[in-house]
Amino acid sequence: MQKIIQTARLWLREIDISDAEALAAAINDFEVSKWLTRVPFPYGLDDARAFIKDALNADTALWVISFEGRFVGLISIEDELGYWLVHSEWGKGLMQEAAEAVVETYFAETRNQELASSHFVTNRRSKRVLEALGFQAEGEAVQKHCLARERDVALQKMRLTRADFFKRAGKTTSCKTASIKFHSERLEFRSFIKDDVDDLMALLSHYEVTKNTLTWAFPPDPKQIIERMSPQSKDHVAFCVLKDGQVIGQAGLVSGMFWYGLHPAQWRRGYGREIAQAMISFAFKHFDWPCLEAGVFDDNPASARVLEKVGMKEVGSVDLWCLPRRAKVRSREFAIQRSQWQQQNAPVIKTGRLTLKSLQVDDLDEFARIGGDARVAPMILRATSPWPLEDAARTLMQSAYTGRPGYRLGVYRDEHELIGCLGLGPDASIAYFFAPEVWEQGYASEALTAFVRDCFKRFDFDTLEADHFHDNSASGRVLHKMGFVTTGEALAGLAARAQKDTVITYELERARFEALHPLTKP
Predict the structure, then answer these.
(1) d(Cα 103, Cα 100) in Å, to the nearest integer?
(2) Helical spans, DSSP H, in 84-161
(3) pTM given for the model
(4) CB-based contact 99:81 (threshold 8 Å)
């Protein structure tokens, strides 16, 4: 089967011996290994190297799951479909996305009519993944030995037929690996198909477009178009840009650089800036590059203005050979750091009475006062009562938005008065606290509704999680109002509590939230 599979957010690729350290670090977590049958715990570097060596010598379809340039799990089809995901990435829908692509490839490239899989009975996350693919339970649960737990565990076998998989969403067996598609405010970006050749030939036939590229041929060559637009790899992706279903441009990323071309009929409409913003956002979301670069020829000031408007800074110039001009041309080089882009694009969410935005150093005193209140501190993770400024500052500095889960937003009344804080953890968990003087005024529900909606929109989660201590019934009422459903109890310890205490755990599915809180346009 295909050695590389691309989805909207993931690269599924072959494993390599260089993955050993990442593999060992990712799976040496009991929260992961306890759901697998053949993985020991603890799991060390020698285990990882032995596994990879065996995998490379075996006839097994196995892929590394790469998200934002990072090793986050494995998925394979041997006798059955098997997979695991690093704990920090649970709740984002990544495994569903990977499994969908692998199963689709399996049925598209083989004549097999069925595929088996299984899950431990108590692993409801894995059960949901399989059921969403169309798998059905086969017989009663059986006992299967789990190496990590060193005991037998109840396991449910599952089976999926080709017909059931393809009829779920009206799929056909001619379907190949899922292509990438996303949207900006006015434009659609999607992977190239061969029907686009004529449109791109027309675009590149405009010398005023092609002369501003580095290596596109003029007159355009259809073979080059197919070759340059088709391959998708871990450091190269290309898109057609569409407006109202019509191809008006092209854009791409390669080895930390982005490029685009736009039909002259669409110039001076702000599309260049919109394309640049979308491509930078896509790059920092899907690749682990620390910065993104772009180049503009000296006689193309319009494109230079586009790059400046999206926050890119000029870092130098260089003479480069321009294939369509057949001459050397001075190129102005621009770059933007990941951290700069994140700061420019941190969430700002407005509700009827509130503004949710990044916490600032000027907020430190009030942040420490609210979190350190004797009525608040025993309910949140890191605070004590009182909360020393040094400790609060450390928490605040770790709150910055990075483009990924693991950040906090302040909740402001009248845009300037800090009254609380909301956070999204790297494990897709929601946490929040508010100043006691604003309790029972509906601020928590108002802020949380807007924040959860933004999280679902921003990160494509299937579910979000939350919890609260058993003696915080007010928080429970807020979560129930959002649509969170109780999933159980656990023990947790806080700095402000003398010993571990019981917390109530919750889960919120995207579909349930959207049904309860439909987005209404003003």
Answers:
(1) 5
(2) 94-109, 124-133
(3) 0.52
(4) yes
